[in-house]
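Quick one: Zinc finger BED domain-containing protein 5-like from Sipha flava, C-alpha cells please.
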Amino acid sequence: MKYYGKKLSVSFKKAFDEVVKIINFIKSRPLQNRLFKILCEDMGSVHTSLLLHTEVRWLSRGKILTRIFELRDEVRAFFLEHNFELKDRFLDQMWLLKVAYLSDIFTKINELNFTLQGRHVNVFTAHEKIHAFKKKLDFWKICMSSNEFDCFLTVKCFSEEKEVEINEVFIEEIIQNLTGLSEGFNQYFPNDQQVKNKNKLWIKNPFIVNTRPPAMSAKEYETFIEFTSDSSLQEKFKSMSLAEFWCSSNDKYP
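--- reply ---
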C-alpha cells in the first residue's frame, strides 16, 4: 500500500505536496500555530490544530488530508493576515476537490490497513479483505464513469455544497488513479493466490472437508479423518479463533 503513496498522478501529487507545505508553514512556527488555534476556537471549530505529516508513517496522509479539509475555512481565514505563496489554494475550488478526493481514498486505504492488523488476523482473513478491496476499486471506477460519487462522500458533499462542477478531466484523473492503485494491488497480491488458498480451506474449516486435500499424504489424511470426527474439537472450533483452535489441538493431533 505504500506503493500507492509514491505512484500518485502528477496533479494529485502536487496537491498533496502543497498540503504538506501549508501545514508545515503553520505548524513549524510556534506563534503561528498558537494564532491558528485561537482562530479555530473563535470560529467554533471541532478541531483546533492541524496534523503534521511524516514520511515514515505514511498512513498519516489520510488523517492530515481529512483534518485540513475539515479546517479549510479556518485556514483560508488564517491566510488573510499571513503572506504565503500557497494561501490562494483555499480559494481554488478544483484544488480543494482534489484534496477532498485524496482524503477519501487515503481514508479507505487506512481502513483496509486497520482490518489487516490484530492478533486474530490470519492469511485467510487478510486475503479476503484485500480481495474485497480490489473488487471495490473496480466498482469505484464504474461509479466514476457514471458520474456517481456516493463512494467518495467528501467529494460529493463538497461539490454539492459549493456547487462545483465535476468535469470529465477530473473524473478521468480519478479513474486513472484508481487504475494505478488496482495495478499495484494486483502486482503485490496476484489473483492466483486465491486458487492457492482454496487448496488450504481445510485449515480454515476442517469440518467441511470431505475429500483429501492435495498437500496431504494418505497417512496424514487418515489422521485428519480422526481429527474431524472428534466431537470435542468441533465444539472448540465454534468458540475459538482459528489460531487458538489449531494451537490447542496440537497435543492430541501433532
